[in-house]
Design goal:
Blueprint (H helix, E strand, L loop, with lengths): L6 H27 L14 H16 L4 H17 L7 H8 L34 H62 L9 H29 L1 H4 L3 H8 L10 H7 L3 H16 L1 E2 L4 E2 L18
Antiparallel strand pairs: 1-2
Helix pairs in contact: 5-10, 6-9
Length: 312
């Protein structure tokens, strides 16, 4: 006898099987997306030597005494932490203030006092063993030393500026003096040629120093020239002959005559010498050094005056 199933029975059996497949499919999706628990890495077993070293380091750390600086830092941190905390409501002092009408954030005293403090006075911890007021005295001394140093520096700078200005003025006056001496010497030479044509034996003291300096420079120039020429012509010096070197090295020395009058005149200040030369130019040749002009009469009409300031 064969078994047969109707179409309705087949449909119902198919529908009954579908939920099972769906559930099975969901279970498979959950399994695929499920996060696996992390497996701890295998720990390496501590050896006897490592354990002994670790215990030694830990014991040394426990036995180590902190230094004074570290203790001071710890105390400072603890103090700052304690001062930063506000009074808790369970504090006895806070309870007493609350019973007297105090409210957190409000000032003590009368409500009409608007400038009353809402925060306690900051705690200033005194460090060191010095007496009260010692820090202020030290600050005062440091401040005075700094002010004194600034003042000394300013004085040195001012003195340096004054010295530089004075030296510059001296160099300018020296140049003016030499220029005035040159003018006087030139005018004197013109008068000499016009009168007799014979050079005077004695030179005026006012420009005698100028001529002496010129003769010295000329004498030094000739000595260097003669030495250079003798070295280039002498074969003994080229061969390294010591006697030849000694002969060549001898330079004729000129003994300069002493002039006490000139030495005494040169000891005068530059301003006095310049005034004397300028006055001589005006009285002898009616020449104004500042105008750079020679006038036709002794009155020197048109000249502002004898000094440089008069010509500014």
């Amino acid at each position: 006898m064969g078994l047969s199933a109707s179409p309705a029975q087949l449909d119902s059996s198919t529908e009954a099987a579908q939920p099972k497949l769906t559930a099975q499919g969901d279970e498979e999706e959950d399994y695929l997306t499920m996060a696996l628990p992390s497996v701890p890495a295998p720990t390496q077993k501590e050896t006897y030597t490592q354990r002994r070293l670790r215990i030694q380091r830990e014991s040394e750390a426990r036995a180590r005494q902190p230094s004074k600086k570290e203790l001071e830092k710890i105390r400072t941190a603890q103090r700052e932490e304690a001062l930063a905390k506000k009074l808790e409501q369970s504090n006895k002092g806070f309870k007493m203030l609350s019973r007297m009408g105090y409210k957190p954030g409000a000032a003590l005293g009368s409500a009409e006092n608007k400038d009353a403090r809402t925060e306690p006075i900051a705690l200033d911890v005194k460090e060191g063993r010095g007496g009260i007021g010692l820090d202020a005295e030290r600050k005062r001394k440091v401040r005075e030393e700094m002010e004194g140093e600034v003042r000394r520096t300013a004085e040195e700078q001012e003195g340096f500026r004054e010295r530089i200005a004075r030296e510059r003025e001296e160099r300018r006056r020296e140049a003016q003096l030499r220029a005035a001496m040159g003018v006087a010497e030139g005018l004197d030479e013109e008068d000499t040629k016009r009168e007799s044509g014979v050079e005077k034996k004695t030179v005026n003291i006012l420009w005698r120093g100028l001529r002496r300096d010129r003769e010295r420079r000329e004498r030094d120039r000739r000595a260097r020239h003669d030495l250079t020429q003798s070295l280039s012509r002498n074969p003994a010096y080229a061969d390294g002959d010591s006697e030849g070197e000694e002969r060549v090295g001898k330079v004729e020395e000129v003994v300069e005559e002493e002039d006490e009058e000139l030495d005494e005149w040169e000891q005068k200040p530059v301003e006095d010498k310049l005034e004397e030369v300028v006055g001589f130019l005006r009285s002898r040749w009616w020449y104004c050094f500042w105008c750079k002009c020679r006038y036709k009469s002794e009155e020197m009409d048109g000249c502002p005056g004898r000094t440089e300031e008069d010509h500014d």
